[in-house]
Amino acid sequence: xxxxxxxxxxxxxxxxxxxxxxxxxxxxxxxxxxxxxxxxxxxxxxxxxxxxxxxxxxxxxxxxxxxxxxxxxxxxxxxxxxxxxxxxxxxxxxxxxxxxxxxxxxxxxxxxxxxxxxxxxxxxxxxxxxxxxxxxxxxxxxxxxxxxxxxxxxxxxxxxxxxxxxxxxxxxxxxxxxxxxxxxxxxxxxxxxxxxxxxxxxxxxxxxxxxxxxxxxxxxxxxxxxxxxxxxxxxxxxxxxxxxxxxxxxxxxxxxxxxxxxxxxxxxxxxxxxxxxxxxxxxxxxxxxxxxxxxxxxxxxxxxxxxxxxxxxxxxxxxxxxxxxxxxxxxxxxxxxxxxxxxxxxxxxxxxxxxxxxxxxxxxxxxxxxxxxxxxxxxxxxxxxxxxxxxxxxxxxxxxxxxxxxxxxxxxxxxxxxxxxxxxxxxxxxxxxxxxxxxxxxxxxxxxxxxxxxxxxxxxxxxxxxxxxxxxxxxxxxxxxxxxxxxxxxxxxxx
Amino acid sequence: xxxxxxxxxxxxxxxxxxxxxxxxxxxxxxxxxxxxxxxxxxxxxxxxxxxxxxxxxxxxxxxxxxxxxxxxxxxxxxxxxxxxxxxxxxxxxxxxxxxxxxxxxxxxxxxxxxxxxxxxxxxxxxxxxxxxxxxxxxxxxxxxxxxxxxxxxxxxxxxxxxxxxxxxxxxxxxxxxxxxxxxxxxxxxxxxxxxxxxxxxxxxxxxxxxxxxxxxxxxxxxxxxxxxxxxxxxxxxxxxxxxxxxxxxxxxxxxxxxxxxxxxxxxxxxxxxxxxxxxxxxxxxxxxxxxxxx
Lengths: 495, 294
Hints:
heterodimer; A: mainly alpha; 3 domains; 3-stranded antiparallel β-sheet; 17 helices; 8 strands; B: mainly alpha; 2 domains; 49% helix; elongated; DUF2398 family protein (chain B)
């Protein structure tokens, strides 16, 4: 009797391809669902936008952070706008957000996608299985912010190189790039360079995870052979790629500068873009290298901290090794029994609220206390009158100002002003003398800025003052007119 | 601590016979008062003179200690430890009114089996992260430090290792459709997103960091953790009570459940970086020094 299944090996390959196919489904799904949206969205190519969004997120991924949600939307907008230039910018924004949120799949509790496919078991029974995956995931960033990262699935779908080894794929891309450049096919070269960059990002991501795990627990990572091997491999890789890309950079620069005359501006622009991409690759390699160099000291410091502390006198329970690690591979149902037991005993106690019916009735019937909108009542301030210790009174000041109210064409001698003042009030000459001395160096700049129209000034022409109470120069006191309108005009011009 | 109540010393019994045998209502009130102090888990003994005095009495007067233990037991409480360090550390006995129920703890957990597991796992992971090595759990002076994001990435790391292992063995871990209970537990965690943007800039409660944040906030309310900062989603350090609770109650209860499921944690003995110290984990914890290599 022929077996219903073509054999486990073929079936496994089929399952892998089915999973790869499933990763593209959310993109096609967007185009199917756009018709259901309120509004006429059929002009937008949703799959294209989704792929562009994944591109944007991947390119912004770094060691520490991912891409910022708002930035991705902002960078996606030009493409959205290009697809429907006549539409409202607000709609473009809405479309960009809708695409990004659907790539995250905000609506589901897992924020991921699920596809169902079938395989044959070794015994020939047909089993339907759930395949869960994410395309763009949200990760916690510094300070509680949320960043976006593309998953391996998304990068694989995007690059179109499913199930390939990172390092070998990178080498292949480099070789392809060199060939393309030597043949002068820059459009293809750019594509290959971008692919190389995605691979670099993927490589860096794998390293980042390892280093993070080490910081948590040195035993999480095999530091005896696996990690040192990986680090030396990665360092070789960085050195190699760095040399390689610098060579490429020199080549393209030459191509870019020569291309201008023969091939036209488009060719030149492409070459310039390629230079940028390769530069970015080099930057990423440098970043990767510095992380790699930090890895050794980090491990030693963590080992000192974690492993060489003096052991305690008695042995305890190994929470990870004996509880958490064995629980995780269990089926969900069985694992829940263990976590429930831990939860029941590990959460401490809560004192239950005890309510008496009498209290409850009182509480429910008590009218709510009126809210204090105006805050607490202000206490009446206890004011103490401060003694008036001014040398001159307000009336004296008014009299002095009136005396100094001189017409601009008739300045007066200080001696005359003092004599006039003495006739009114024996104290007034002091105030007049004070004001006159003050006017000897008038604040012209301030008056100018404040737009004053008149300014009191005093000039010493060498005549000595003949007065029973004061000595010094007999100042000429006058009023200068300032060109307030002109000054205002000047100010506006200067501003 | 609970099942061993020291007998009154015969010599001492002779001297203070009358007081040791005649329990007055005032003694009972004091004992109940001590238990009520124990019910305020965030109250530090050093901060309250009356608490300190009652603790001293518990430690010095065996008769009073038995009385206080009896009051606690009668209320459905388990006395974990009585010391000036931890105060009167109490835990709720099973089915006691003081016990925390999963359904009250998280609404979704009552209905959804995956959420129920994730909430429980969050508590287990917090403890594992706070006491990463068996010595840490055993050492009374040890203070563990955890962060919300740290716990999440620690569990994710463990999940990823399982995923890599399954992949290396060519195992298809995708669960059969319609049988969610048979899905491997790590997949349920790996599948759930770590965080998520929400409209009001709060933490997404269904995400794994949201679930862990809930767990640590709850533990802080129980006086088990103290918040020390906001870095990495919130940083906390452990208290003496937490260590007692995990060591004497939760750890062993979960362990018993695991053994009942027929899972006896053993190591496969592959090459390891750190051989377990000789005195470490003799019969209780085989290869306890190598948690990540099992």
